[in-house]
Amino acid sequence: MTCDKNDDRETGSTLKPKYDSNGLLSAVVTDDSSGEVLVIAFMDAQALQMSQDTGVAHFYSRSRKKLWKKGETSGNILSIVEMRIDCDQDAVWIKAKPAGPTCHTGATSCFYRVIKNGALEMVE
Amino acid sequence: MTCDKNDDRETGSTLKPKYDSNGLLSAVVTDDSSGEVLVIAFMDAQALQMSQDTGVAHFYSRSRKKLWKKGETSGNILSIVEMRIDCDQDAVWIKAKPAGPTCHTGATSCFYRVIKNGALEMVE
Considering the entire predicted model, what is its pTM? Predict the structure, then answer.
């Protein structure tokens, strides 16, 4: 998040992703209708390209070390409505229409617990 | 995001953050009023603790390699309304009231450009 104000990367119209030392960008997906944060993941160059090319969110799975099309197993894909990039181009925000629950637990969002007084409480 | 369904980490009420190999969690901040994504950053254990203790968002700056109180220089702090954690406890979602523009560029949000046909377009 520390960026040079005169850097074309943050003022220009050229897509120049700034991948970290592992070749990754952060990626957050919100529900285009509710605005709720559904999931946070990572993208490598291939995932970013596939997301742009297909209109469906693709990530890089750090545990499986490979391209991950969200919903490839469950069918609960995330159709991209809009994709934004941040000032220093190391993070992506996707507004999406989810085909079903985003979380593998069956929850609408992966963020179903609030941190309160050092413990977790279920939302809703 | 690949988690064991029977893991207490994802069903329980105990805060057990799953830091990555660099000791970090992903963190996204949305504006509690507008729902807009303001910034994506990282938290280490200290930043998470400070955020809980003070009610103001703290992160870990990967470039400066130290604790980063958002707004420490600009005054544009992020007052935490609610903090959530995701299924496998490696990502945090903060809903906040920003004291001013979140981006160092002066923009309300760091996500002021849309990716369109491989290039960037300003929002608004």
Answer: 0.94
ipTM more than 0.85? yes
Is residue B89 within 8 A of residue B10, CB to CB? The reply is: yes
Longest dimension (CA), chain B: 45
Can you tell me the distance from the alpha carbon of B4 to that of B27, in angstroms, rounded to the nearest whole number? Answer: 22
Judge whether A16 lies within some domain.
no
**Partner-chain contact B1 A107, CB within 8 Å:** no
| Mean pLDDT of the region A104-109 | 96
Q: For residue B94, which phi and psi values (nearest 5 degrees)? A: -105, 125
Residues with Cβ within 8 Å of residue B116, at least 6 apart in sequence: none
Mutation target vs B (from A20, A65, A111, A124; most B CBs, 10 A cutoff): A111
> What is the domain-level CATH number for residue A62?
3.10.20.810
The Cα of B98 is separated from the nearest Cα of chain A by a number of Å equal to 17
| Identity of the residue numbered A47 | A
